[in-house]
Write a structure and sequence with these properties.
With about 375 residues, this protein is mainly β. Helices cover about 5% and strands about 35% of the residues. It has a domain of about 170 residues: Jelly Rolls. It contains 2 helices and 28 strands. It has a 6-stranded antiparallel β-sheet with strand order 12-21-14-19-18-17, with no helix packed on it. Strands 13-20-15-16 form a 4-stranded antiparallel β-sheet, with no helix packed on it. The longest helix is centred in the first third of the chain and has 18 residues.
Length: about 375
């Protein structure tokens, strides 16, 4: 009897203590906050607070105090501005060391989750913010995104930390069997200075990667079959930027002025029109690697070489050159060149006006890599 009374009294004494948390504990999660983007896979955050018995400012709670979730995962409307470019543009016109610039994204910094921007027409970049907005893509042309200044995996289902990944055909969770790769290196030598056609990316191309094999003073350029330039046309050389082209976003990357790094163009696709990729020759071509993927099911029958008219001669005398667009086609639509390899390829360049120039009108077209800026045309001297 005494033992039973003792146990009952002990239970009554300990009951309040048993109802109290045993050491540090987490409070309930807060509701999720506002989405960081209105489209294109934003991020929303919820938090929780650790209730601690410690007096030194620390705590013994195990686990994170923040939780992240994807939101507004629908694609942004076609032609929407690149999200990182949008953030850099917020500093347009603001005072910066006594000057007012238009700011463009800079992709060459070590930490891709910082907001590094480059003023148009200048050769430096500046870190405007320690972290880009949540949901900003870490790498051009890839699906991972920055969250709290750290790069996180984003699955092809647009969910954070999802294991679902696109294959090169852009099939979510696919095995790469619905498309085939087109890979090659453009290493043609003895090219004339100026614009030279390398290859054409056809409609439907995905997982596009174009890269110089080594850094040179040459430049990449993009135009359509009508001759309208999307990148680096008419001797106006642009800085690194994201360009909405042919139904996709193409990311052009090159070093700041004086920084020798290979130029690259990256895009997810699929492309909605053929794209002519050119090399602007300033020095010897060291090679340009390229790769893209096309849907299966295209036969080689019926393809032919199509070509445009010759451009005007680059010189009035003394042997200039002309160029024209040449591409493999069927039903007037451009396709990869290898589909026409059974046929002799027409010339894309030829010499013209070989006659000797009169002494008083001899022209020399000097392309000096160190003597012109991207905003200038090549200089023409008469002597």
């Amino acid at each position: 009897m005494n033992m039973l009374w003792y146990l009952s009294a002990l239970q009554l004494f300990l009951a309040p203590a048993l109802l109290l948390p045993n050491g540090d504990y987490w409070e309930e999660w807060s509701p999720y906050g506002e989405c960081s983007r209105s489209c294109g896979s934003g991020v929303t955050i919820r938090t929780r607070r650790c209730v601690s018995q410690r007096t030194d400012g620390g705590n013994n709670c195990v686990g994170p105090d923040k939780s992240y979730s994807s939101c507004n995962i629908q694609d942004c409307p076609e032609g929407s501005r690149d999200f990182r470019e949008e953030q850099c543009s917020q500093f347009d016109g603001s005072d910066f060391q006594g000057k007012h610039y238009k700011w463009l994204p800079y992709y060459g910094a070590d930490n891709l989750c910082e907001l590094n921007c480059m003023p148009r027409g200048e050769n430096f970049f500046y870190r405007h913010r320690a972290a880009v907005a949540d949901g900003t893509p870490c790498h051009p042309g890839r699906k991972d995104v920055c969250v709290d200044g750290v790069c996180k995996r984003l699955g092809c289902d647009n969910m954070l930390e999802s294991l679902q990944q696109d294959d090169p055909c852009l099939q979510c969770g696919g095995n790469g069997q619905s498309c085939y790769p087109v890979r090659s290196t453009f290493n043609m030598n003895n090219l004339p200075k100026g614009y030279n056609q390398m290859f054409i990316i056809p409609v439907g191309a995905t997982s596009i990667h174009i890269r110089e094999t080594v850094a040179t003073r040459n430049y990449l350029a993009i135009k359509n079959l009508r001759g309208e330039y999307y990148l680096n046309g008419h001797w106006v050389i642009e800085f690194s930027r994201a360009a909405p082209v042919a139904g996709t976003m193409l990311y052009y990357q090159r070093g700041a002025e004086g920084e020798m790094t290979p130029e690259t163009i990256i895009g997810r696709g699929p492309t909605t029109e053929p794209l002519v990729i050119e090399l602007i020759i300033q020095e010897h071509n060291q090679g340009v690697d390229y790769e893209y993927y096309l849907p299966n099911g295209r036969s080689r029958e019926g393809y032919y070489w199509s070509f445009g008219s010759w451009s005007s001669c680059s010189r009035e005398c003394g042997s200039g050159y002309q160029s024209r667009l040449v591409f493999c086609a069927i039903d007037n639509e451009a396709y990869p060149d290898y589909l026409c390899t059974a046929l002799p390829r027409p010339l894309t360049n030829r010499t013209c006006n070989p006659q000797t120039c009169p002494q008083t009108r001899r022209m020399a077209y000097l392309y000096q890599p160190n003597a012109w800026t991207p905003s200038e045309s090549p200089r023409t001297y008469v002597y």
